[in-house]
Amino acid sequence: MTGKVLRTDKKKTQTLEEMEECNVDSVKLQYKKQANKASKAVRMAKRDFERKIAKSIKTTLNPSLSMLNQNLESNQVWDH
Description:
Layout (H helix, E strand, L loop, with lengths): L2 H19 L3 H35 L3 H11 L7
Helix pairs in contact: 1-2
């Protein structure tokens, strides 16, 4: 997890504790905003991580993998 995700989650937890102590509508609204920020941060971090993985896969192609795919496409048996 990134630092931003950890910070937003910590702040969400603190706001939840405040909400449990006093049952005020303003604190509930504040908690909802923090929960939304935290979930958005998780989605963005996940998206960035998956983009990073996809980019690294495109740049580092494995030659044996491409050979295997060619053999599978032509329905040939691949001997070791």
